[in-house]
Design goal:
The structure holds 2 protein chains of 2 kinds. Chain A is an alpha+beta fold. Chain A is about 35% helix and about 10% strand. The relative contact order of chain A is 0.08. The model of chain B has no long low-confidence stretch (mean pLDDT about 90). The chains are: A alpha+beta, B alpha+beta.
Chain lengths: ~100, ~475
Amino acid sequence: MSLDKEQVQHIAMLARLNLSDEEYAESVEKLSKIVDFVDQLSAVDTTDVVPMAHPVDAAQRLRPDDVTATNDRDHYQQNAPEVVDGLYLVPKVLE
Amino acid sequence: MSVAWEVVIGLEIHAQLATKSKIFSGSPTAYGADPNTQANLVDLGYPGVLPVLNKEVVRMATLFGLAVSATVARRSVFARKNYFYPDLPKGYQISQLELPIVEHGEMHIIGVDGMEKRIGITRAHLEEDAGKSIHEGLDASSGIDLNRAGTPLLEIVSEPDLRSAKDAVTYMKKIHTIVHYLGISDGNMQEGSFRCDANVSVRPMGQKELGTRAELKNLNSFRYIEKAINIEVERQIDLIEDGGTVVQETRLYDSDKDETRSMRSKEEANDYRYFPDPDLLPVEISNEYIEAIRATMPELPDAKQARFIDEYELKSDDAAILTASRMLADFYEGVVKATDATAQVAANWVIGDLGGALNRDGLGISDSKISSDELAGLVDRIHDDTISGKIAKQVFEAMWDGEGSADDVIESKGLKQITDSGAIELVVDKVIADNLGQVAEYKAGKDKLIGFFVGKVMQETKGQANPGQVNQMLRDKLK
């Protein structure tokens, strides 16, 4: 196994996933297989290869600095569980 | 306790770029709009949308890079910085990591010790701002306003080259002046358009390795930056001297209590799992483009200050004040061009009376109630002896209160200096006749009394006589 339970727990925490013990056991096995599969690439000598930023060999298109969007708040907020005075409500965030 | 400590500071400044639309969408960026009225599908992170980069942010970042003698990357890459927070709907912030648009710049400041110092600028990269969480007036919830989400930011990262809170403020002020000169940010700190995080550590003087740093978040006034850094330095030194160790973490400055406190352990929160954003292609910039931007570079504060000293023969303090903002410098040059008086006299008026009036009324130079041409008109009347400097102050106040041009005020209030020597002579004779006791004392050698006589004449003429002429006439008559 290339990954241990602790690493998978860390990944789950970062992804905000709450996994059961059985799911952890399964995840450790499956994720390790994926990592091992991808790890075959390490066999290739990439000393002189520039890391690829994007699979498409093209440059970013730029748009002019124009305001093209109009206010459509009411429409978008139909998807929100709760809104007050135009604000999306979420459980209290404390710092 | 005899260890001398060296303070090491690096700043990460976030300057909001003054574009009309957001960095990756066509939503407006105006400040203070109703919540969520400036957030479209891209800003809200809906599935299936694509970010498209704003051309203007590339120009602004390039201009900044050139202004701080940096390398502008021919190819830069956007990356996703992954973390969860309610004001970040996508679950990642689009930023730049390995290939930022600007690298290896520098800035020179005059340190608190009066010496010039080079402050390295590691990098400046483009990124999007997050939304805002609002807690006031809501009980069990927080409200999310995503108007700010997607607003373009230029994050300017310095080397840990700063050695005191004062120098950090000087550096930040200089960056503030430069972005303003370049017209790429309004620099409004109250509105959060210009804010900074400070990485602060201490080490025994002479030690090479850096101490463990704490990051102070979201400092949004020059005064707080200085206070927050000083209080954090004190905390770290006390901690180490008591046998403790500094933990790498993010801390928040509480201005009410004047203390910093831990926000969260940075180690855990710091696992951002950056990777190149597949929605955005690399940004490519040609040499021709860079040269075209370079050709639009305005005169920068240091160069302008040097030119003011050289061309207008100003004192360096005055030149520094006048070049602190581009608009003030332009105003001053407007006065100089329009007046026959010397450039230094113009400087005295702009800094002294005009600066004082602006300060008193809490106005910026752009809100000045007197234009540069109008001020030049006033300075000219002193220059051609129509009024004395003292009367000019009275005229200035009237102009400030909207009573018209200098000539209008002088005319309507009858403030024109009396140059008719016959008229002055009448008053001089009267003053001598009324003060025979003082005349005797003067003649007995009490030379200082000449001031008394000049004062009396000026009083009689309501300040409209020429003091030099009065002085000469008195001396002749009292011989």
